Amino acid sequence: MTTFIARLKSVVKRVIAPVRQPNPITKFEYSTLPWIDKGDADVDAFIRQNPGHKDLSYDLAEKMKFWRENGYVILEQALQKEWLDQLWLEAEELIEHHEKYQTLVRVDLPSYQNNPIQPIKNVPKSILNGPYIKFNDFHDNSVIGKKLMLHQNIVSFLSAIFDDKVIGMQSLLFKYGSQQATHQDFAYVVSEIPSHLAAAWIPLEDVHADSGPLFYYPGSHKIDKFNFGNGIFFNDKSTLNPDHFATYLDETCQKAGLEKKTLLIKKGDVLIWHAALAHGGEKIGNPELTRKSFVCHYSSSKAYQHHRQSPNAEPIRRTINGADVFASPIMPDQEDIFDAGKTM
């Protein structure tokens, strides 16, 4: 009887014991972090050792210290407004005469759910001119797009953050607010070293509170990463989805006491944010209001050595202000077809 009871207890213990799972990855690998994300980061020492960052429209040391604590910076009136106007003129040309162009667009509408990425010539003008549309990598097509992406004020800040040459990875151009749920970019935009990622939002007009402005949680770049069931990156093997991701981020930020802020940025300003800053787009309150935007993603030379569309080939580089952007390997004939920016 004693033996039977002992066996029974053993069985019950195995049945009710929790399933042991490997510890989820909750942080970037420390050794690969950009220097400024490490605990011993000394901004003043960096500035003393790298005196070449001069003639900027902002105090670099001040912005770097703010970034270290908050995961973002705003560079006020850092971009030429005539450059911004030129970029949107080109976007209007794309929409108006879409049948002439190969530029890829993402259509976030139910009717395009099975094939959201389309050549712009295949999408009706009525859809192109509305919400739920993003023009992908328009900097490939546009000289002024490249100049804005690799503007001196942006490149100088990012090169200091990475302590490396800056690489422009990709861009999105859109007319209306994204209305995207809370997310962190690294889960979707993956560099060869995941922590070596940053983004810039370049508004092409002043942003109104009812246009679906960007929101963000300052300091959220330091919270633990979300595990999609197969790691911290979302892909076709993930067992959890972006809705779970958004819920986790909102709840974790609130529990950490991080304040959700909305950004009413001005034309000429630029917002630069950390790969892990939790952010998204508010709902559009007034459907008549646009939020014309150019969003660019960046990595470092050591972390992004090949174009994502041709990972085994040596990229063709375009260099501006000491930073590189790779030419499109799939549509070389569309490179710089909008060339008015050459004289600007």
TrEMBL record:
Keywords: Dioxygenase, Oxidoreductase. Its cofactor is Fe(2+). GO terms for molecular function: 2-oxoglutarate-dependent dioxygenase activity; iron ion binding. The keyword 4Fe-4S does not apply. Coiled coil: none annotated. It holds the Pfam family PhyH. InterPro entries: Phytyl_CoA_dOase-like. The keyword Oxidoreductase applies. This is Phytanoyl-CoA dioxygenase. It comes from Spirosoma linguale (strain ATCC 33905 / DSM 74 / LMG 10896 / Claus 1).
